[in-house]
């Protein structure tokens, strides 16, 4: 994390993030997750800590219905069994029909054929947001064959063009996770400099962020706040909590515990004081040169 | 938790609970769990901490056999894949045939059709105990359409009539989880005032209690202690450990860690000193008025 | 743990273990796990803490391909759904074809028929290593009907003959977990005295060791170090970290957290200073008499 690059920011998105955090805690958004077997418990605990109400409904015959009832939906492809693939397609259809915001997390696509084909079917349904590491975003855009599994082998900035392409093509907000997170709606690009390397040493560190995005998108419904703002707000809150947790951790085990505590205790004011974000109006490769 | 409502109790069920805790630790009951993907690891850790021996055998072709070998069985419907549904029916049949006590946890039934139908099939097999939040107990009794997912939208006392109805109809002990837990065999009603709100901020806080009930029911086999006593004892121990953990926690992450430590270290005497329970002989709506 | 039996050891395998730990951290081995639903999150966190790169790819149509790309593979039979069984056979075929080292963990075989038959099919593919408790190793060798689920009812030394038999029959290194771990390639036998009882109070304490073995076997590829050395090194590192964690734990909850921290922070020198291992040249029943 380049500490000097981004001083605590006064960009209006920070005030919006503070407001959204309060909204999440005032009226816990029912967040419907179809996620992978590795991180399902951690993801539910992250949502509970944030103040949202998780529901992991990944059963065929229930997912479509529930996506219409939920406030936000996450579809994560980490361990896409046939049952989960069918339930994911149901959930996407239910979310689209009901206007429920939904997040697609195309875990480890590119090299792995089953999930790659599944991700392509889902992205055609125009997810509200797409979250992945650079390799996954490049693969989803058709610009690379992906990394080795969940291992990110490209930097977020390297995926900036792919992110904008995906955003424009599918009407989605695209978030590329990495040391500096990049979030775009195809026109505007936010870069978030908060976070900590320990987040990559806990399984679900990325996957659970997708769930928090779904919660914040849900909380933003009926407000003037855009999906771009909601996804950026979720990223800011999540990565600020990670920084605070890392400051009192001895390793990945104690970090995961402190992270859940911080997700529950970090206030809107804490968030405002620590947020480091910039809006990049022009293509990122020029903006940073 | 209404601290003044229930002073530490001298009701005989407390001494029975202390004895059952010791029995669990002397001869770890083999506790067979068919439970949901979100909480399976936490549930196993809770059982290990308590002193029981967990075994998560949810495979068709093994569940019926294993339910006959186990000391107690839990069937939880949180993520009921087709394989788990078939394995659950097998396990119920095996438990009934062998006389193994078993617990049904009808997670999120009511609004979700697949699990609701499955729960109705299972409850016909007359589970030894049924555990749920008020919305789930109301839905299982056919008195409501359920809450929104796992979210409890009714209070335990509101489900008192439904609990007694279910208990009488199926010969089960019914436990309604909430700020004050209600446990009934259809005639007698116990109310347990121990516990802590942080238990609702950890995924599996309710589900793992169902597993502990199965362990205590197993330990009670061959003793003079009734299923009503065993289920009440499990609830008392679990909620007392939660109180002790909350006293040294900074949030939901550190609470979950301290809770496992307390489940392992809380002694029978600790339990006796902290238990707050009352027996309500008459319908609860009259007893508290 | 018999503290006096094994003083810190100067056997050359300790220096090899120190070197392998450094190799794992220098070039994180991509470790492909098909493991059970109870421990999948914990196993990924253990691998991340150690410094390896976990990937839980248990989908039919992806597993064979990925086993060829991975550095090491674990196939664990804890919750063998039909999908996982098919994916496991794919992964074994892919590993064999590519020469990727792989570990078989035959969880709870013997009494449970589906996994027992599945384990027999897999062991015919000649795994690089087999890890289990004594009951599982006896059952896999056809010398017993197994324990009651994952519960070890036999001591590692009681399984010494079964371990050598399996090792010789299938060309595998066989590791028997217990208070003193026993590891053999059919000729040489190592006994490791490190470890702590708390490791048996955390679900996945044994299962995640199989994953660390796969990581160390992966790191040993292309070196002069044998699979016997790699499996012994993994066991030494894992059990030394457990000892260090236990020294600052209040129970199973805080132990699991400290264990992940120690897996990340224990250095090669720490390992060398604490390792207690002996080589037993002759059959163990004679060596200890």
TrEMBL record, chains A, B, C:
Obligatory cofactor(s): Mg(2+)
Pathway(s): Cofactor biosynthesis; thiamine diphosphate biosynthesis; 4-methyl-5-(2-phosphoethyl)-thiazole from 5-(2-hydroxyethyl)-4-methylthiazole: step 1/1
Molecular function terms, GO-annotated: kinase activity
Keyword Repeat set for record: no
EC number: 2.7.1.50
Matching NCBIfam families: PRK09355.1
Protein name per UniProt: Hydroxyethylthiazole kinase
Gene: thiM
């Amino acid at each position: 994390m380049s500490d000097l690059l981004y001083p605590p920011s006064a960009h209006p998105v920070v005030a919006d993030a503070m407001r959204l955090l309060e909204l999440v805690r005032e009226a816990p958004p029912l967040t419907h997750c179809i996620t992978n077997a590795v991180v399902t418990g951690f993801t539910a605990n992250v949502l509970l800590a944030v103040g949202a109400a998780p529901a992991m409904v990944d059963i065929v015959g229930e997912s479509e219905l529930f996506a219409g009832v939920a406030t936000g939906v996450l579809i994560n492809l980490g361990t896409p069994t046939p049952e989960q693939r069918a339930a994911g397609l149901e959930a996407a259809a239910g979310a689209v029909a009901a206007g429920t915001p939904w997040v697609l997390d195309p875990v480890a696509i590119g090299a792995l054929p089953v999930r790659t084909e599944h991700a392509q079917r889902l992205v055609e349904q125009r997810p509200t947001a797409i979250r992945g590491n650079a390799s996954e975003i490049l693969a989803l855009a058709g610009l690379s064959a992906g990394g080795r599994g969940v291992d990110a082998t490209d930097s977020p900035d390297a995926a900036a063009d792919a992110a904008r392409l995906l955003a424009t093509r599918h009407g989605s907000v695209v978030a590329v996770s990495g040391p500096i997170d990049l979030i775009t709606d195809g026109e505007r690009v936010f870069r978030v400099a908060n976070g900590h390397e320990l987040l990559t040493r806990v399984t679900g560190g990325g996957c659970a962020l997708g769930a928090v995005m779904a919660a914040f998108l849900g909380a933003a419904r009926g407000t003037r706040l855009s999906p771009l703002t909601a996804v950026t707000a979720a990223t800011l809150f999540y990565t600020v909590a990670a920084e605070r947790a890392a400051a009192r951790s001895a390793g990945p085990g104690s970090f995961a515990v402190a992270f859940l505590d911080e997700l529950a205790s970090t206030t809107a004011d804490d968030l405002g004081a620590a947020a480091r974000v910039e809006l990049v109006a022009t293509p990122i490769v020029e903006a940073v040169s």
